[in-house]
Amino acid sequence: MNSYIFETIDYEKSFPAKVFITSIHNSNFHWHYEYELILVLKGSLSVNATPKPLILETGDILLINSKMVHSLKKTQEDNICLFIQLNQSLFNDWKNKKRDYYFYLNSKCTDLPPRKAYSEFIKIMANIAVEANKEDIAGYYRTKAWLFMLVADLFEFVHYDIRQFATVSNENNGAQTLMEIITFVEEHFKEDNMVDSLCKRIGMSEKTIYRFLKQNVGITLMGLTNNYKIEHSKAMLKFTDKPINYIATECGFTSDITFYRIFKKEVGVTPNDYRQSDVALEKNQEVKGYLDYSKKEAVDLLEKYL
Amino acid sequence: MICTKKHRLSYTDAAKKIIDNLSLEEKVSLMGGNITRKEMLGSYKEGKHYNYDPYEAGGISGEHKTPSLRFCDGPRGVVCGRRKSTCFPVSMLRGATFDTELEEKIGRAIGKEVRAFGGNLFAGVCINLPYNPGWGRSQETYGEESFHLGRMGAALVRGVQSENVIACVKHFAFNQMEISRFKVSVECDKRTEREIFLPHFKDCIDEGAASIMSSYNLYQSTFCGHHNYLLKKVLKKEWDFDGFVMSDFIWGINDTVAAANGGQDMEMCNTVFFGDNLVKAVNNGFVSEDVINESAVRIVRTLLAFEEAYEEGEPYNESIIGCKKHISLALESARKGITLLQNKNNILPFSRKKVQNIVVLGKLAEKEVIGDHGSSQVYPKYVVTPLQGIANAVPEAKVIYYNGGSIEHATALAKDADAVVFVVGYDHDDEGEYVASNKKDAYTTGVGGDRKNSLGLHKDEIELIKTVGPANDNSCAVLIGGNTIIMSEWNDYVSSVLMAYYPGMEGGTAIGEILFGDVNPSGKLPYVLPYKESDLPQVNWDTESQFYQYYHGYAKLEKENVEPMLPYGFGLSYTSFKITDPDFKVDKEGVTASCAVKNSGDKNGTEVIQLYIGFKNSSVDRPVKLLRGFQRVELAAGEEKKVQISCPIEKLCWYNPDSEEMELEHMEYEVYIGTSSADKDLLHGKINI
């Protein structure tokens, strides 16, 4: 993740949320146990998560559910976003602990709108951020109070599905397997027989892996693999002079045609057009760009929503 | 059973000896509840619920010590305590098992828990016959058929009393309307009374039940709690009942003199009309002291017999309450009673291999669907909801629940899923015990009442099934409710239908197991399922007077030649059964029918073989046929067994209002043996008497 403009101080391990404002450049496919609420305060943000990729604009909010694989990228314009990561414990202290909730909260989506205006959710998010920023005892408790309000509103006004687990099941095994699959794909996406070796490595058939990913993170193995291939090819297109067919092979695509087709679909332009475009790409994604935004600016942006 | 009627009667002298030494006041004190109304309401304020502790009545300490009665309510378990008791499926589900042995085992388990709570009486043998299935408390009884009610009730009596706990049979009589129960006077002719509404009570008394509870309602304009004819003439004289009568709670007696002279032995659970008022009535000559002596003997004799029998054995302690063995009995009952009503293209059982992604819809899926919140509410340690039960049945699969709201979203989820399960029906607000509009009197936490508006599903549930059902063929509607749920409006929109009643604390587990084929369903409908409500006898639920016709349920439909949607005694299995070689014999004792049953399918299963007797040749108006025997038969795939069912000859009688006797007609009777009451499921024969 990128550096933060500000984030909650680590009061104690048990604090049920992490609140921070940041400018996103690129955050590749990842997942976490926390439910993640994103509010775009400035600019726009490209999010790739199920069911389909979308661009969030200023004033949009999106909830990314626990354990859902997603990636975040900057668009042409720079962005400032508020992130509230809600710990699972906030959702688990009700009667039945053997369940996950899947909320539908996405201001870019017309299906299943919440039974309360998005602006109400945004207001609570802004309050959480402002209170969290105060770094005093009143702020600490108010942050918590607003967090509980937010969770209550999610249950009362947002549509959600429940994934019910068996009484004796170990969903943690699932999370471990998921981590293993993602790491493996990240390291081996270029290899022809990646799927075979993955199957051997984790002891699941291709079908089972497909089902497992679909059920747990809503993404296919192919989708995940293609993502790494595309990201790698983008870098090669921008930073090398290698011919396209070389890049295609190097990135693990079976043919030029496949490379073109998938690249066009995922990025929106052909590899050639991309190479010639002005779109900047961070050369070393570990080193984050300079943040132009001051804390002051972030607070000003937030105050509009209070 | 130690405490048989004979054994109890052997305590008559001992009881008389005690009573001879008691003052009038002391004797009368035996005849009423010891808890005051104020104490009762006060206990609710302390966070205790109705009957949290056994309610005590009577009892005298000192020189002429007599044991007190300690009342525990039911029937789906023992009402006392919190997070302790075993919550069995409601009686209606247990009726659907047609398993008297299992009912007896449940009775024993309940008896043990009653004793462990410190009680000595279980008032959970509810055998009222729902004249119309809309009766709000019909979940507490076993079904619509008097013969079947008698057999199931008698089995519970046997079980409970084997543990030296007094079984109290209720509500005597004609109690099958809820909203009007305090004011309605039921009217019917003598044949209806004797052939339809009383025989099952007699069956339980014949089995040795030592106590009976009078009902709130009136019969022929007299309160049943004061009913000389019902309590003295029929029960105590004709049926030679040796035990005692108690009133239904608080509002079951309305007049001191009328009740005492009407044969009422005990005012429960607060003493208001009895106690000092009864002493005064005796002193003023309105009630003879002999009446008091008789009641006192009945009460003391019964209590002495049961208390001594219990004290001779090992006492039960709290560890038996909600123990593993009892909970597994609750599960066994749910497995055997849940009834498969429809299974198009054998869509059930779901295949674990193919069904990896299940969508569960309907708000009852995540509710604790164990039934009413009235006086029958049991407080178990835990309840497995239908949703949890389904998830437990397929731990590897993805089980998604959506609580409704957006029907489009529900449809989209169903489309993507490998199977969809609707959990629909009723809860304690839709049907159940109804106390009063006066909130301060209420001891229930649900709305309850009769189903006066409809016997069908809620509008939103029908819309859900009709809209989402077509999106996925691999579908099942799991019905929750205490009695008939009319299905004709929506059953074409769903492939399979499973009637789960209120399946108890392990009900969700049984639902999951049946959906995925770990358990082969074997329940049978203990009532007829008509296409439309108007096929059933009509009742004015809010009334002061209601006439009951002679015909109700399947007998009415058959008599009127109305085809039911599903016949009485119907239930599907995942295997198939073939019935052959019917044989019918008759002698002085009764009718004996036999047949061979073969499991002709490829799964182990259980069939309920049913015996019906037909009365087409009768010289009077009688039903086409009536259930007169049943037997569960467990068969491995391919296995064949011979089944024999007997019916005592008196169960063929009719009541002759002229002679005022049950009479046997000498004629040719049709006899039927098979797997439901439908003609196509029965093999025919004839017998001559």
Structure, described:
- The complex is a heterodimer of chains A (306) and B (689).
- Chain A has helices at 89-92, 118-134, 137-157, 171-188, 194-202, 206-216, 221-239, 244-250, 256-267, 271-276, 295-303; strands at residues 4-7, 17-22, 26-30, 35-42, 44-49, 54-57, 61-64, 70-74, 80-86, 99-103, 160-164.
- With 306 residues, chain A is an alpha+beta fold.
- Chain A has two domains: 4-164 and 287-303, Jelly Rolls; 171-268, Arc Repressor Mutant, subunit A.
- Chain A starts with a strand and ends with a helix.
- In chain A, 34% of the residues are buried.
- Chain B is α/β, with parallel strands linked by helices.
- Chain B has three domains: 5-320, TIM Barrel (Alpha-Beta Barrel), CATH 3.20.20; 336-553, Rossmann fold; 575-688, Immunoglobulins (Immunoglobulin-like), CATH 2.60.40.10.
- Chain B is built from 19 helices and 25 strands.
- In chain B, strands 1-2-3-4-6-9 form a six-stranded mixed β-sheet.
- In chain B, a hairpin with a 7-residue loop joins strand 24 (668-674) and strand 25 (682-688).
- In chain B, helix 6 (100-116) packs across helix 7 (146-162), helix 6 (100-116) runs antiparallel to helix 14 (324-337) and helix 7 runs parallel beside helix 9 (199-206).
- The interface between A and B is medium-sized, with 19 and 23 residues.
- Strand 11 (160-164) of chain A pairs antiparallel with strand 12 (398-402) of chain B.
Shape of chain B: globular
Please tell me the total number of domains of chain A: 2
Largest sheet of chain A: 5 strands, antiparallel
Question: How many domains comprise the coordinates of chain B?
Answer: 3
How many DSSP H or I helices of chain A? Answer: 11
SSE order and pairing:
The complex is a heterodimer of chains A (about 300) and B (about 700).
Chain A: E1 4-7, E2 17-22, E3 26-30, E4 35-42, E5 44-49, E6 54-57, E7 61-64, E8 70-74, E9 80-86, H1 89-92, E10 99-103, H2 118-134, H3 137-157, E11 160-164, H4 171-188, H5 194-202, H6 206-216, H7 221-239, H8 244-250, H9 256-267, H10 271-276, H11 295-303
Antiparallel strand pairs in A: 1-2, 2-9, 3-8, 4-7, 4-9, 5-6, 5-8, 10-11
Helix pairs in contact in A: 2-3
Chain B: H1 5-9, H2 12-20, H3 24-29, H4 37-45, E1 55-57, E2 69-73, H5 91-97, H6 100-116, E3 121-126, H7 146-162, E4 166-172, E5 185-187, H8 190-197, H9 199-206, E6 211-214, E7 218-219, E8 222-223, H10 228-238, E9 244-246, H11 256-261, H12 276-283, H13 289-312, H14 324-337, E10 339-343, E11 357-361, H15 386-393, E12 398-402, H16 407-416, E13 419-425, H17 459-468, E14 475-480, E15 496-499, H18 507-515, E16 545-547, H19 553-559, E17 577-586, E18 590-599, E19 605-614, E20 625-635, E21 640-648, E22 654-656, E23 661-663, E24 668-674, E25 682-688
Parallel strand pairs in B: 2-3, 3-4, 4-6, 5-7, 5-16, 6-9, 11-12, 11-13, 13-14, 14-15
Antiparallel strand pairs in B: 1-2, 7-8, 10-15, 17-18, 18-21, 19-20, 19-24, 22-23, 24-25
